[in-house]
TrEMBL record, chain A:
The keyword Cytoplasm appears for this protein: yes
Keywords: Cytoplasm, Metal-binding, mRNA processing, mRNA splicing, Nucleus, RNA-binding, Spliceosome, Zinc, Zinc-finger
Protein name per the record: Pre-mRNA-splicing factor RBM22
Zn finger intervals (C3H1-type): 162-189
Cellular component annotations (GO), alphabetically ordered: cytoplasm; Prp19 complex; U2-type catalytic step 1 spliceosome; U2-type catalytic step 2 spliceosome
Main subcellular location: cytoplasm
Subcellular location: Cytoplasm; Nucleus
High-level lineage: Eukaryota, Metazoa, Spiralia, Lophotrochozoa, Annelida
Residue ranges occupied by any RRM domain in the UniProt entry: 235-309
TrEMBL record, chain B:
Cellular component annotations (GO), alphabetically ordered: spliceosomal complex
Biological processes per GO annotation: mRNA splicing, via spliceosome
InterPro entries named among the record's database cross-references: BUD31, BUD31/G10-rel_CS
Organism, scientific name: Capitella teleta
Family recorded in the similarity comment: Belongs to the BUD31 (G10) family.
Sorted UniProt keywords: Nucleus
Localisation per UniProt entry: Nucleus
Protein name: Protein BUD31 homolog
Main location: nucleus
Length: 416, 144
């Protein structure tokens, strides 16, 4: 390996000089105003061993100073934070991420091969526009299923506890004389026999033998699953943790409508829960599968369970309105009306649109479309897609019926 | 340091009154100089020196400006003989610097972000319960 910059420039290994580090939210800390120290060629990268630009900063009050550990090329190749080596998107170890995305890449680990590989990759990064991934993750390689696993394991909020000072080694030996002033933590250290306390930065980078990843994978395999009840007539879901006045019946109706027709939605405000009854068992099962332990509404993680079967309601089923599968699907009637009305509107608007000569679909008497109070996607039926007939790919604005009937936000002027 | 006698002139009147205290401080300084560094952090080694230096300058400063116990001649003599640090005393006359611990703590050129030492931050501006012990001289806060 070249250890210094000599006069010979032929095929010389590049020393990395960067202006800004690649970091995750957690490592940056909670303070939006950060002062960083930049040290050009300050250290060698802990993976590729080339000198790189080290950044050092304090991620908030009572946190330890952090610095970048691997060079930016190495970080970009694996899409990880330069400091914590966790994935930038999900905050997960590379081993977990690769297992979920099913990316099998083999980065060379021996000296010369590694140099050659880094050189090639650096050239590729320089040639790319910086918005797409380079290297083993170029294709994306995401399948819906693996994505779900990542979403389940990923953190939703930054984990600032990771930035705390280390445990005071003097205190552990009982020799710390600094007392209150000691900037290190005076806490019981982790058990040295714990596999998590034996981590290696290179293994973490390459995603092999990572104890944290193994812990996460085992946690994923033992995640609780909700078993559908034996009684096939149960089509009701219990939704808990609604909070006070935060989630309305409309919200629930709008959300759960995507899985199938709803027969009834009953909200029990006093107990902050709701019961959602589907017309079919299949819809209910799909809803449970898609929402159990996943549904977050207005920042609250909702608690999903199966409703009790009619036989069980007597012993504490609560306000469950479960009247069996014989009821007519009342919801679908309404939908039918709406869709008929919507198609009429569509016809009418298409006519209008064909009259106008503007390139865009915005009719002359319309203000901006009501993007602000967009309804969630499952309600697409209630929406009209308005498009310029002559240039269908030019632009497409969505308007909702309710906007025309009871305009708020945007005011389509009267037609007169 | 009053080790080397620079002037042959006899000290002004009143010298015999302050001499015992100065000798005592001198003795303390000697002890601090010869003290072992065992078990101390690197930065901690110089803290007692800074403290005694501050104490000695403060003694002269107080005698002349606060208690008005010594004459102008004697005060000038102390400054000239480097018994008191005249640069430090010059700072003490400025508002906001009345209790300044040492000159290194206000030397902004020596820090990464051109800031003063943490001991220069007023107690009210510090976060609750934070205990400060500055690296330069071990000061625990010298600004209100």
């Amino acid at each position: 390996m070249a250890t210094s910059k000599g006069a010979n420039t032929y095929n010389r290994q590049n020393w990395e000089d960067s202006d800004f580090p690649t970091l995750c939210q957690t490592c940056l800390g909670d303070n939006p105003y950060i002062r960083m120290m930049k040290d050009k060629y300050g250290m060698e990268c802990k993976v590729c061993e080339r000198p790189f630009t080290v950044f050092r900063w304090c991620p908030g009050a009572r946190m330890r100073f952090k610095k970048t550990e691997v060079c930016q090329t190495c970080a970009k190749l694996r899409n990880i934070c330069q400091t914590c080596l966790l994935d930038l998107e999900y905050g997960l170890p590379t081993q977990v991420r690769d297992a979920a995305l099913k990316v099998h890449e083999s980065m060379p680990k021996s000296d010369v091969n590694k140099e050659f590989y880094t050189q090639n990759m650096e050239r590729e990064i320089a040639n790319s526009d910086g918005t797409t991934a380079v290297g083993p993750y170029a294709g994306g390689g995401k399948s819906q299923n693996s994505h779900e696993m990542l979403m389940k394991l990923a953190r939703t909020a930054p984990y600032y506890k990771r930035n705390r000072p280390h445990v005071c080694s003097f205190w552990v030996k009982g020799e710390c004389k600094r007392g209150e002033e000691c900037p290190y933590r005076h806490e019981k250290p982790t058990d040295p026999d714990d596999p998590l306390s034996d981590q290696n930065i290179r293994d973490r980078y390459y995603g092999i033998n990572d104890p944290v990843a193994e812990k996460l994978m085992s946690r994923y395999s033992t995640l609780p699953k909700l078993e559908p009840p034996e009684d096939k007539s149960v089509c009701t879901l219990y939704v808990g943790n609604l909070g006070e006045d935060e989630i309305t019946e409309t919200d629930l109706r709008n959300y759960f409508y995507q899985f199938g027709e709803l027969r009834a939605v009953s909200l029990v405000i006093r107990q902050q829960c709701a019961f959602i009854q589907f017309t079919t068992r299949a819809a209910a099962e799909e809803a449970v599968e898609k929402t159990f332990n996943k549904l977050v509404m207005h920042g609250r993680r909702l608690n999903i369970k199966w409703g009790k079967s009619p036989g069980q309601t007597a012993d504490g089923g609560g306000n469950l309105v479960d009247t069996g599968p014989a009821l007519p699907p009342c919801e679908s009637l309404l939908c039918l009306c709406i869709s008929v009305a919507s198609s009429l509107f569509q016809l009418f608007l298409l006519l209008l649109a064909s009259w106008t000569t503007s390139a865009c679909t915005l009719l002359p008497w319309q203000v901006c479309p009501c993007r602000d109070h967009c309804l969630p996607l499952p309600l697409w039926r209630h929406w009209l897609l308005l498009q310029d007939v002559s240039k269908p790919d030019k632009c497409s604005h969505q308007f909702c019926i309710s906007c025309f009937l009871q305009p708020f936000g945007c005011h389509p002027l009267p037609l007169g | 340091m009053p080790k080397v006698k620079r002037s042959r002139k006899p000290p002004p009147d009143g010298w015999e009154l302050i001499e015992p205290t100065l000798d005592e401080l001198d003795q303390k300084m000697r002890e601090a100089e010869t003290e072992s560094h065992e078990g101390k952090r690197i930065v901690e080694a110089l803290w007692p020196i800074f403290r005694i230096h501050h104490q000695r300058s403060r003694y002269i400063f107080d005698l002349f400006y606060k208690r008005k116990a010594i004459s102008r001649e004697l005060y000038d003599y102390c400054l000239k003989e480097n018994i008191a640090d005249k640069n430090l005393i010059a700072k003490w006359k400025k508002p906001g610097y009345e209790n300044l611990c040492c000159l290194r703590c206000i030397q902004t050129r020596d820090t990464n972000f051109a800031t003063n030492c943490v001991c220069r931050v007023p107690k009210t501006k510090l976060e609750e319960g934070k205990i400060v012990e500055c690296v330069n001289c071990g000061c625990r806060g010298c600004s209100g």
